[in-house]
Design brief:
The protein is an alpha/beta fold and 470 residues long. 38% of the residues lie in helices and 12% in strands.
């Protein structure tokens, strides 16, 4: 559709829709009852109770005709499947990592890596750990340390690479710790916790130099690597004519290995892998893989899924796909910004992040403004989102001194799923809540699990506020 003074220009979909799925339209009465039954935690909702599902971009992509055709070519041999050979050769070609071990999803790859390399009391620096990454580091007895640049915590900053690692703080950490205390340095591409923000190639080079000086390997969480490469191409001088795969090879050439949830930039609904250059580490990973996941040539997956991953990894490097993908995020961000809705700037690669503190300034941190906003967006329009803040990341180590941790609500956009008109409905819903934000009441947690509380915790609303709406 054409742009107008009130609407930016919507990105055109670079695909035709061949199959459609009916979208539920739960009434307000149904939504209110669903919230109560779910303990005001949107993870507990049933899919038929959700109109537009922006809970996550993980495993929610629409696969292409080529991927669906690939599923019909499944060679379900227990060992040595030809689908594994295609998958392995694709990952090797894109990353340069010679040892590739498939897993059923990204958190399985994290479990293998951290249980293999970490020991109790060790430290794992990262720009920002995401939820399961942080949990697996802790499960191995290690301490996750966030070392993102200060601009990452400023939602108004337009810094083009807010996912960058603070090299001064990383250098200080590595200098101050004895050998063996830091078993690896991790970098998340893009930085999901901080708003889907990219890491520059120059910053990755700096991380690599610092780690190499202390003989410490660098590993990436590469689940959104193609989106990160797109931002390098668009924003970092000297890369505007390079292809995504070429930029990717430059990125991966600076690392020892990576974990990946292929449910993101693999464009599939399940699957992942861990990869490394180190043959000794690969053997240890392989032993753990056999114990927890399956034989090394299937890793807990149907072999047909390996075929779909191989095809999806290639499709994720296509410029037309990425321009639409990131264009959709930018479009939703522009719709909200024009209405004055406070969001994290600049828009990231896989979703729009609402600044819950500025959105609901009348709520105290103890009133959990992020979760309160998640609840209200669902109540208003049946949109499912997720809090990325105090609940998800309580006790995180490494926030710069004098800087408030982020309190965000993520609107994660599934790949190749929703149209621009549906995103306009999302924007209209958010704007309606923003216009009456002063009447939104906080919530309190009434049941908290020991690990990853945001998945299964239960909440209850606080008494209504009486402040007038805007």
């Amino acid at each position: 559709m054409a742009g107008s003074p009130s609407r930016p220009r919507a990105p055109i979909e670079p695909f035709r829709i061949k199959v459609v799925e009916a979208i539920p339209d739960p009434s307000l009465e149904v939504r209110v009852a669903a919230l109560e039954r779910a303990g005001y935690n949107l993870f507990n909702l049933q899919s038929e109770e959700v109109r537009i599902d922006l809970l996550t971009d993980s495993g929610t992509s629409a696969m292409s005709d080529r991927q669906w055709a690939g599923l019909m070519l499944g060679d379900e041999s227990y060992a040595g499947s030809r689908n594994f050979a295609h998958f392995e050769s694709t990952v090797r070609r894109l990353t340069g990592f010679p040892h590739v071990l498939p897993t059923h999803q990204g958190r399985a790859a994290e479990n293998l890596l951290f249980s293999t390399l970490c020991s109790p009391g060790t430290l794992v620096p990262n720009n920002m750990h995401f939820d399961t990454t942080q949990a697996h580091v802790r499960h191995a007895g290690a301490v996750p340390v966030n070392l993102a640049i200060a601009e990452a915590y400023d939602t108004r900053s337009e810094h083009p690479f807010k996912g960058n690692v603070d090299l001064e703080r990383l250098a200080a950490l590595l200098e101050s710790e004895p050998p063996g205390k830091v078993p690896l340095v991790m970098v998340t591409l893009t930085n999901n916790t901080g708003g889907g923000q990219p890491v520059s190639l120059e910053n990755l080079q700096g991380v690599s130099r610092l780690a190499a000086a202390h003989s410490i390997p660098v590993y990436y969480d590469m689940c959104r690597w193609a989106e990160n490469a797109y931002f390098i191409r668009a924003r970092e001088p000297g890369h505007s004519t390079q292809g995504i795969a070429e930029i990717g090879r430059a990125m991966f050439g600076l690392a020892e290995g990576a974990t990946m949830s292929a449910k993101k930039d693999g464009l599939v609904n399940t699957g992942g892998f861990v990869a490394t250059r180190d043959p000794k580490v690969a053997e240890r990973l392989k032993e753990a893989l056999i114990l927890y996941e399956g034989f090394p040539t299937y890793g807990g997956l149907a072999r047909r899924d390996l075929e779909a991953i191989a095809i999806g990894l290639e499709e994720a490097t296509e410029l037309a796909y990425l321009e639409h993908r990131i264009g959709q995020v930018r479009y939703l961000a522009e719709l909200l910004s024009r209405a004055g809705v406070p969001i994290l700037l600049p828009p990231g690669g896989h979703g729009v992040y609402l600044d819950a503190r500025r959105f609901l300034p009348h709520l105290q941190p103890s009133e959990l403004p992020g979760q309160a906003l998640v609840v209200e967006l669902y109540r208003e329009g049946g949109i499912r989102t997720v809090e990325v803040g105090e609940i998800m990341f309580a006790g995180t180590v490494g926030t710069p001194k004098g800087v408030e941790p982020l309190e965000l609500v993520r609107l994660a956009i599934p790949r190749r799923v929703y149209t621009s008109r549906q995103l306009e409905f999302v924007a209209d819903t958010v704007i309606q809540v923003f216009l009456r934000a002063a009447s939104v009441r906080g919530v309190r947690m009434v049941a908290r699990p020991e690990r990853l509380p945001h998945f299964t915790a239960r909440f209850a609303p606080l008494p209504p506020v009486t402040a007038p709406a805007r």
